[in-house]
């Protein structure tokens, strides 16, 4: 155990297995860890001692308004490109009755144990419901013939200030995870994919 003080906060570094660290993170997210210790805990994170801690990958902001015009951002494609017709229907994609809508997917590599990687699909759907409001759906889906997502894979929504406002985590037999929210024209938000010490942040705005 290593203790370090930084900006008035005490940072405690613990060494353990990924299973132990996952349990610690789950206790923190449920509020049980703070209750048991009786002290405020701001954050719990995991990283590998064999490699430098990975910095969060951050990409240029994506203009979702361009998607509504049929122009996908570089690196994004229609969901139909990635899924067969049966799966496309199963994951509630666009119907003919939905106007002012667009949906795009992007492949993301997730680093597993022993240097192995799995690829998952980040899917974003935008639908304009009024002159000022849009509905956003964010999904993570398995690819490459996999039936399920890796467990403990987190999908989160970040506000403009960087605070987590929505979050969902995959379990052992989840074939997708998702959440929906309403945004305003002119607004911006972030979608973050987290797996252990790796974080990927995609930022979006609706002009």
Task: Report a brief summary of the structure.
The protein is mainly beta and 207 residues long. It has helices spanning 18-30, 32-37, 64-68, 85-90; strands at 2-6, 9-13, 57-58, 62-63, 77-78, 101-111, 117-128, 133-142, 154-158, 164-169, 177-184, 188-195, 198-205. The protein has two domains: 2-37, no CATH class; 57-205, no CATH class.
Question: What descriptive keywords fit this protein?
Answer:
207 residues; mainly beta; 2 domains; 5-stranded antiparallel β-sheet
Strand segment count: 13
Low-pLDDT residue spans? 1-6, 48-55, 93-97
Q: Give the overall form.
A: globular
Indicate the percent of residues in helices: 10-25%
Number of helices: 4
What's the layout of helices and strands?
Layout: E1 2-6, E2 9-13, H1 18-30, H2 32-37, E3 57-58, E4 62-63, H3 64-68, E5 77-78, H4 85-90, E6 101-111, E7 117-128, E8 133-142, E9 154-158, E10 164-169, E11 177-184, E12 188-195, E13 198-205
Parallel strand pairs: 3-13, 4-13
Antiparallel strand pairs: 1-2, 5-6, 6-7, 7-8, 8-11, 9-10, 9-12, 12-13
Overview of this protein structure:
The protein is mainly beta and 207 residues long. The chain has 2 domains: 2-37, no CATH class; 57-205, no CATH class. Helices cover 14% and strands 41% of the residues. The protein is built from 4 helices and 13 strands. The protein has helices spanning 18-30, 32-37, 64-68, 85-90; strands at residues 2-6, 9-13, 57-58, 62-63, 77-78, 101-111, 117-128, 133-142, 154-158, 164-169, 177-184, 188-195, 198-205. Strands 3, 4, 9, 10, 12 and 13 form a 6-stranded mixed beta sheet that branches. The protein has a 5-stranded antiparallel beta sheet with strand order 5-6-7-8-11. The longest helix is centred in the first third of the chain and has 13 residues, at 18-30. The radius of gyration is 19 Å and the shape is globular. The N and C termini lie far apart (48 Å). The relative contact order is 0.16. Residues 1-6, 48-55 and 93-97 have low confidence and may be disordered.
